[in-house]
Amino acid sequence: MNVYLILLVVLCNITCLRASRMLVSLYAIDLGAEQYVIGLVIALYALLPALLAVFAGRLSDRIGPRWPMLGGSVGVVAGLVIPWLWPTLPALCVSAALFGAAFIFYHVAVQNLLGAISSDHNRTQNFSNYSLMIAAGGFLGPLGAGFSIDHVGFSRTYLYLALVAVPPLLLLAASRGLRRQSRRVPATAEVIEKKAMLDLLRHRPLRSPLIGSAAVLTGTDLFQFYMPIYGHSIGLSASQSGFVLSVVGIAAFAVRIGMTALVRRTGEAALLAWSLFLGALAFMVFPLFKNVAVLTVFAFLLGLSLGCGQPLSTILIYASSPKGRTGEALGLRLAINNMTQVLIPLVAGSIGSVFGLGPVFWVNAMMLAGGGVLVRRGRA
Question: Which of 215, 198, 203, 195 is nearest to 61 (CA)?
């Protein structure tokens, strides 16, 4: 499958993901959900991925990327259609669980496919372009969802997102190149032995990037969920919250363009650690302000931090994985991340019901700072 078609599929699906995370938070509020219930809905996005991510990676290693990507894309469309057909809070729970489970199969497989079709010479460039598509989706998704919510409502916005997710499904189903790639990837990999997941955790080169990745991805995803809730609590419209979230995507896009030069100066591990510290600072001060302009500035800093950390951790994990287990290692990365995403929303939602939304952001700040410290120690 052509790299540019892969990137187009990534752009469409990540736009739907970023938009749905903002949409589900505001829709739950509109349906009268309490904060602990919203925390439960958010946790459902990550519950099944936490359980299935390593299996999804092993499946991608063994049968190739086509069927996991295709099945995942079908699940994404179905997860977006459900709240349009059934506009209730239980439907949001079903949608979140189905969307999360489907997306993890697609997400692991597309990263494994991108690494498999790349050479040592162009792998960094391909992953950089992949990360640019993620950043672009992070800009388009929240911005489009915010304006759509204000103009056509929550239910119809889900329908529009489902229509955006249909073209990737059709491309994946029709791609002959992806069929050939699915036959080729397992054949070129070494024979995969049935090894315990703990073997990967004992693989020392993987530890630091796994820690950094868990902190970066969890911080990114929870900001997508909780910033709209915070914006609603201080009187921002859906369009304003969407704009603040879209600034994160703009900053991520900008920093990824210059990331190669930054890596040459500092090295991957050091840059990942400093990006985590910057994200911790942004999370710590974000809930102290209510002005849209000030929030936009801190969102931009957060985008610089998390936008730099995501591709760095992915590249380091792929390069540090044992041969024949790259998909499993990428799945382990997402399993750790999603397990954190299950626990933090449940705890933070309960705390937020009593103390407000500040602790949600401060827990994220401590997580990022701790990740930065551990990455620096691992590098040493």
Answer: 195
Residue pair 34/25 in contact by the 8 Å Cβ criterion: no
122: which 2 tokens? 């162009």
Using DSSP's 3-state secondary structure scheme, residue 111 falls into helix
Which residue reads 């790639």 in tokens? 181
DSSP letters for 167-200: HHHHHHHH-HHHHHHHHHHHHHSPPPP---HHHH
- Let me know: does 302 contact 282? Beta carbons within 8 Å: yes
Compute the 3-state secondary structure of the chain and give helix, strand, coil in percent, each to the nearest 5: 90, 0, 10
Q: For 341-366, write each residue's pLDDT tens digit.
A: 777 767 766 666 666 778 888 888 98
Domain boundaries, the chain: 3-379
Which CATH architecture describes the domain 3-379? Up-down Bundle (1.20)
Other C-beta atoms closer than 10 Å to the C-beta of 129 total 18
User: Tell me: the pLDDT tens digits for 265-316?
Assistant: 887 778 888 888 999 999 999 999 999 999 999 999 998 988 888 777 777 7
Query: Scanning the structure block, which residue is given the tokens 């509109």?
Result: 30
Asked if 232 and 29 count as a contact pair (C-beta separation under 8 A), the reply is yes
Q: How many CA atoms lie within 13 A of 46 on its CB side?
A: 25
Give CA separation, 130 vs 114, 126, 315, in Å.
Answer: 9, 6, 11
Sequence-distant (≥ 6) Cβ neighbours of residue 198 within 8 angstroms: none
* Distance, CA of 344 to CA of 367 (rounded, Å): 10
